[in-house]
Amino acid sequence: MSIYKSDIDAAKNNWDTFWNGTNKRPMLSAVLPRKGKTPVEKPPYAAGHDGNFAPVLDQICGWVETHEFLGEAIPFHYLEFAADHFSILLGADLVFPGEGGGWPLHFVNSWEKTELSFKRHGKWWRRTVDFAEAIKKRFGDDIMIASPTFVANLDALVAVRGANDVLLDMMDQPALIRRALDQVLKSYKEILAEYEILFEYKRLGSITRHGIYSKGRINVPQCDLSCMLSGEMFREFVLPYLKAEMECYDAVEYHLDGPDAIRHLEDLCSIDKLGVIQWVSGAGNEKKDWTWLHDKIDALGKGQILWANPELAVSYAKKYKSRKLFFLLSVKSRQEFDDCTGLLEETWSMKT
Fold first, then answer.
1. How far apart are CA 157 and CA 152, in angstroms?
2. What is the maximum span of the chain, computed from C-alpha positions, in angstroms?
3. Is residue 329 predicted with pLDDT exceeding 80?
């Protein structure tokens, strides 16, 4: 049980039904300010990267104490210092030019002279461990920790060498690129084994940065470089590694980023282990109507994360066949949330 969410066990059990297809409604999440409390914002992304954990822990405490977590929302802190956190565990360093997390410094000049490996004695792994232990000491089981996202495969190579060079290398020295990808995958599995211990997956389960929970292992594979690849190159250099990554998990959420990545959707959806897709339209595309894409994802048999108000949530629930629907629900009160929950249960009871 969590002092910040008394029904956390029920929420975790609901997530179980989500993954096994027996859920009676879509999963729902809403985080609302508690009545009579002055709300405290959650810590900014990448907080704690400087090793100064105390103020971050205090802010986490203020946030969970002044908010209520409705439905399948589980209180958690997303521990990550950069989108390319994985690369810093391979030896990259970070710079912090402003808000929004760190940027990796490229360090690979030649694939022939570089062996990518997990730097388990490096400062960034040590800081990751120290921050996780500080959170666990302060909060125990009352909140979860979302482990850093694995930005691996070609995206990891981009983080340590740069996109232009990686794209040229794929044409000029494909064998060395595949060798580097194999090294990344080996390190991936080693780091995941450490995460399983550090974040106590076997006892607590795991949660993604978007709040999707599994009683086993879950993470969010991606390949943003796919926007710049043909279907043939994607199938050669990316798809086998994404499949291998996903086989490491009990549940998988995929991060699909930008219109140019959509060309690979059918290939992605051929991976049985992929359960849920999180779509990001990219800068300048937020106001476009992506209904056709959500329809296509559903037709291909995959679940989705969808931001919705109650009216839109009910519309999606009526329309889509997948039982793996997760709504980040925009509501103003617990009553509005409860009313929407009832409507969604009624909607699905009529469908089945």
1. 8
2. 63
3. yes
Residue with tokens 């002279």, as numbered in its chain: 113
| Per-residue pLDDT tens over the stretch 200-221 | 999 999 999 999 999 999 999 9
Query: In this structure, what token pair is assigned to residue 168?
Result: 């040229």
Rg of the chain over CA atoms, in angstroms? 20
How far apart CA 77 and CA 124 sit, in angstroms, is 18
The mean pLDDT of 281-292, rounded to a whole number, is 90
CATH number, span 8-351? 3.20.20.210
Residue ranges covered by each domain of the chain: 8-351
